[in-house]
Amino acid sequence: MAETVLKVAGISKRFGGLQALSDVGLTIERGQVYGLIGPNGAGKTTFFNVITGLYTPDSGTFELGGKPYQPSAVHLVAKAGIARTFQNIRLFAEMTALENVMVGRHLRTSSGLLGAIFRTPGFKAEERAIMERARELLDYVGIGKYADFKARTLSYGDQRRLEIARALATDPQLIALDEPAAGMNATEKVLLRELIERIRADNRTVLLIEHDVKLVMGLCDRVTVLEYGKLLAQGTPHEVQHNEKVIEAYLGTGAH
């Protein structure tokens, strides 16, 4: 039986007079790549931000790995086991690629402030382990050779990969990618797709919000489509692509 990683239900969110989300939910199983799409203004970014703790919902229930969690702050959601990237890259520009990933890894460490101040043997051993894991993750996403380069000197596509490595460093139950293909050229998109497929092959779980419908339909196991803050359709890419409501609202008749 499939293991449910994320289950959210009955999510509503209002901003002043705008009802941004109305009774929206989804269920993501382990090892899935799950797509979230919709026209501009559909509420997908709001939904994504609620799941990852950037916005607090007005109502709804949240379970991660079978346990309730409250998306009241990004760092608490990260601690619970959801790591996210952002549409606008948020790296530490003056840090090296390696240091950026090490920052992500520190979320799962235990030696604390006193260990760092007094540089205890436990702290030093943990730092070595963090550095080794960070190097492994840079290799994993395909940018190991840039470990000692400052983040700002990396190409756009490689900065996206670095963000994903940093997210993976937190050992998340779910990695949530916000428009990872935005601004990428065709070659970079192919490499991104291969990386996400690799992440799935390792039984990790991905939530993907993305404007590139072709990428979503070719990559995702299941897709949720929102329109005007409401659920328009859910299902496999094939089911969604052939859903009359979706075709009318979003995909256009050329989607077949």
From TrEMBL:
Start and end residues of each ABC transporter domain: 6-253
Q: Which domain of life is it from?
A: Bacteria
CDD domains documented for this protein: ABC_Mj1267_LivG_branched (cd03219)
Known InterPro entries for this protein?
AAA+_ATPase, ABC_AA/LPS_Transport, ABC_transporter-like_ATP-bd, ABC_transporter-like_CS, BCA_ABC_TP_C, P-loop_NTPase
Does Phosphoprotein appear among the keywords?
no
Q: Is Membrane tagged as a keyword? A: yes
**A single GO molecular function term of this UniProt record:** L-isoleucine transmembrane transporter activity
Tell me the keywords, alphabetical order.
ATP-binding, Cell membrane, Membrane, Nucleotide-binding, Transport
Cited SUPFAM superfamilies: P-loop containing nucleoside triphosphate hydrolases
Q: What name appears for this protein in its UniProt entry? A: ABC transporter ATP-binding protein
Query: What species is given as this protein's source?
Result: Malikia granosa
